[in-house]
Amino acid sequence: RDAVTSVDFSLNTKQLASGSMDSCLMVWHMKPQSRAYRFAGHKDAVTCVNFSPSGHLLASGSRDKTVRIWIPNVKGESTVFRAHTATVRSVHFCSDGQSFVTASDDKTVKVWSTHRQKFLFSLSQHINWVRCARFSPDGRLIVSASDDKTVKLWDKTSRECVHSYCEHGSFVTSVDFHPSGTCIAAAGMDNTVKVWDVRTHRLLQHYQLHSAAVNALSFHPSGNYLLTASSDSTLKILDLMEGRLLYTLHGHQGPATTVAFSRTGEYFASGGSDEQVMVWKSNFDVVDYGEVLKVHRPPAPLATSSGSLPEVDFPIPPGRGRSQESVQSQPQEPTSMPQTLTSTLEHIVGQLDVLTQTVSILEQRLTLTEDRLKQCLENQQLIMQRTPP
Asked: What is the DSSP secondary-structure string of 153-175?
């Protein structure tokens, strides 16, 4: 009944949760003709939703300054968590499900215990509203994005800020960890998306492809793709391996406010100020990479993309607002194909598969070589420092 602020899939992709400015939380069942649950409890707009890793719990944050943990079933029971003194913008469970992190307009990031149902500690170095906070895949780091134009990296154990990334020219709206845990991506009101290496703190990629603020982003579980939602009403899919734009998706009438890949990467969902939640099928990844997809490779370094790059532009198919079964138009199958051509094509596909895997292995070896070279140079500097003149 109002703008959609957030979406998230459960572990098995059987459920999709969405939050809205109408103060309600919806849990949609992915089966056709299944009824959706509408959860009421928050006293103001629901700004964020996140399923626990097991899918048995659902967290939501609100403009009413509270966080609620729901059991996503017919009863819709919830527990209220209070400690923030302003709007809660973001909520995210740790990978072990034992804790969750929140970000708020009170300029703090807070960590909570899920089962003990209590506030644990605050991270308080931002000097403006904090829009987003996320745990790293291993749960040891937290990243946060703020209206103070910075992205901060925190050590959960020491509770100290490890690094501040200050390259954004305006408010930073969304941030998340790459599935490998080695990189972060951040989106901003300056229409940009930036990718940093959390080990070297180097800027790896910079994209300026949207014509308005980028409101949300989501990594594909393979780590090869990044999905963005913008106030220019489009979604964009970026190929991180090649550092380029793959697709622009048109569907929302007005700003696209939120996006999320499913945990398997088979689907993604988007929400907008048009009150629509859309589910899309991720058929941009048609090649079966097999083992290669299981290896979380970090994005290719030093890529700068602008709107001049080639892309495929997809308008939404008829029947807007329903689940989008297919984003790409499928070519018609030829009626017949000579056997020799079929076997040749199969051979080429097989060779491409081998090449892809080879490139993956070479990339890994190159990274190892770079690390060893860096270590050698550091050792050499130490030896020179110790050697008397």
From this structure: EEETTTTEEEEEE---SS-EEEE
